[in-house]
Design a protein that fits this description.
Blueprint (H helix, E strand, L loop, with lengths): L1 H20 L3 H5 L6 H9 L2 H6 L4 E5 L13 H9 L2 E2 L5 H5 L5 E5 L1 H4 L9 E7 L2 E6 L6 E12 L3 E6 L19 H30 L4 H6 L2 H4 L1 H6 L1 H11 L1 H24 L1
Parallel strand pairs: 1-7
Antiparallel strand pairs: 1-2, 3-4, 4-5, 5-6, 6-7
Helix pairs in contact: 8-13
InterPro entries: FAS1_dom_sf (IPR036378), FAS1_domain (IPR000782), Plant_FLA (IPR033254)
Pfam families: Fasciclin (PF02469)
Membrane topology: Lipid-anchor; GPI-anchor
Length: 273
């Protein structure tokens, strides 16, 4: 009995642990009216559902008075900016205080999108004037978003930190279309080989035609009066030998030309392919 109950207890503990780790960022932020605009943007861009799938997360929330023109941007641009405000680790005020004067590099959800260039998907946080300042890890970016307070925390699953203003990451407002540039380069090498080989194929293809024109020469000899008269061909054996010697090479030479020309066409088609 004890052995049969043990697996059921393990499954129950796993289910209870997973349910305890689950959270809903929209419901959590709905309890704090100062972040209602930020909460609406998370739902509008679909980022709220992505956040809820994470087991460990830190959200840098922007208050209504400092959100600025972020609400007027397109959904794609707003989502890219907001993903840089979601850290893929747990940080609360106590954990930040352990940093002292160190600068820590944080990984955001924008790094997972695959669209980050250089350090766009990372943040820097450092202690400055008895507070903590966040900023983009891109070279030359400013660290001017101060930590105002810890909104809520559920160790070690989710932490929401209130910051003074949006974090500005250079290049996120630009449209993302790098995939269309390499397309013309792939087409250029394919068109060049046929043009380079076509003169040789045409030159070699016309060569057998000149040799074929030599074949009708025996027919002109057979059309002469002496070759056409049956009496002379039947009486004199010497008259039969020259036409037979002249006409015998013509079929074989034409056949050889046809075979060689056929082989050349096959080889030319293989090379072009």
């Amino acid at each position: 009995m004890d052995r049969s109950i043990t697996p059921l207890l393990c499954i129950f503990l796993l289910l209870s642990a997973s349910s305890a780790a689950a959270f809903n960022i929209t419901k959590i932020l709905s309890q704090y009216p100062d972040y209602s605009n930020f909460n609406d943007l998370l739902s509008k861009t679909g980022l709220a559902s992505d956040i809820n799938t994470k087991a460990t997360i830190t959200v840098l929330a922007i208050p209504n008075g400092a959100i600025g023109d972020l609400t007027s941007k397109s959904e794609n641009v707003a989502k890219r900016i907001l993903t840089t405000h979601v850290v893929l680790d747990y940080f609360d005020s106590k954990k930040l205080e352990q940093m002292k004067d160190k600068t820590t590099k944080l990984t955001t959800m924008f790094q997972q999108s695959g669209n980050a260039v250089q350090d766009q998907g990372f943040l820097n946080v450092t202690a400055k004037d008895n507070t903590f300042v966040f900023g983009s890890a891109v070279k030359g970016a400013q660290l001017n978003s101060r930590l105002e307070k810890s909104v809520m925390s559920q160790p070690y699953n989710i932490s929401i930190l209130g910051i003074s203003q949006p974090i500005v990451t250079p290049g996120l407002d630009a449209p993302l279309a790098p995939a269309s540039a390499p397309a013309p380069k792939a087409n250029t090498p394919k068109s060049s080989p046929p043009t380079a080989e076509s003169p040789d194929v045409e030159a070699k293809a016309t060569a057998p035609s000149k040799e074929k024109t030599k074949a009708p020469s025996p027919s002109k000899q057979s059309a002469s009066p002496e070759a056409a008269s049956p009496s002379k061909n039947a009486d004199s054996p010497t008259a039969d030998s020259p036409p037979s010697d002249a006409q015998a090479p013509s079929p074989s030479s034409v056949g050889k030309l046809n075979v060689s020309f056929g082989l050349f066409v096959v080889l030319a088609s293989i090379i072009i392919a």
